[in-house]
Design brief:
The chain has 4 helices and 8 strands. The protein is α+β, with helices and mostly antiparallel strands and 189 residues long. Strands 1-2-3-4-5-6-8-7 form an 8-stranded mixed β-sheet, sandwiched between helices. It is globular. The protein starts with 18 loop residues before the first strand and ends in a 15-residue tail after the last strand. The C terminus is likely disordered.
Length: 189
């Protein structure tokens, strides 16, 4: 178990989905919470089935339709928060917050046909806005340290590095003030 650290102050407000924007390729993209419909589920399966294996990290998303469905069944349950980036009726990306102790782990995936168009930024901001609205207090993620674009994006959004001892960086963000620990009180002793 890692000794995660989070910023003292909560992040600024993020936009809660649904939100809509035009990406750098001039496509209209809508970020929406996953609503549980069979059509949305099957669209996610289709995106992940076509996902470039070189974009996988730590074995996710898994390969093969059966394993994709098992994984989605685990992260689309009521304990997790999920948002989807839709480009028309195609899934361009998906992001999730998965409970882990007193925090949530963030994972984001943008299909290769939609990468480098600004969708990932909107997807993360929409997911964090969804999490804020639902009362999520702390979020963490891991990113390979060589992935400078992602590290830069996470820092721009407000994540701070909490553990840099391996080939991955662990980063944390405080979404909402912790109601139980009185983070707004002076802690000096």
């Amino acid at each position: 178990m890692s000794d995660r650290r989070y910023p003292d102050a909560a992040a600024d407000d993020f936009p809660a989905p649904p939100t809509e924007f035009t990406d750098r390729e001039d496509r209209t993209v809508e970020i929406r919470p996953y609503g549980g419909s069979e059509a949305a589920y099957e669209s996610l399966v289709e995106m992940y089935d076509a996902f470039d294996p070189s974009d996988r990290a730590q074995g996710i998303p898994p390969g093969g339709e059966k394993r994709i469905r098992e994984w989605l069944d685990a992260i689309l349950d009521d304990d997790c928060y999920n948002v989807i980036a839709w480009c028309g009726d195609q899934v361009a990306g998906h992001a999730t917050l998965v409970p882990d102790g007193d925090a949530y782990e963030l994972a984001i995936f943008v299909h290769q046909e939609y990468q480098r168009a600004g969708i990932g930024t909107h997807l993360i901001r929409g997911l964090l806005g969804h999490g804020q609205a639902e009362g999520v207090e702390k979020v963490w993620l891991t990113v390979e340290r060589w992935n400078r674009a992602a590290v830069s994006l996470y820092k721009k959004i407000g994540f701070e590095t909490s553990n840099a001892e391996s080939f991955e960086l662990e980063m944390g963000l405080r979404l909402n003030e912790d109601e139980e620990d009185g983070t707004d009180e002076d802690d000096e002793g």
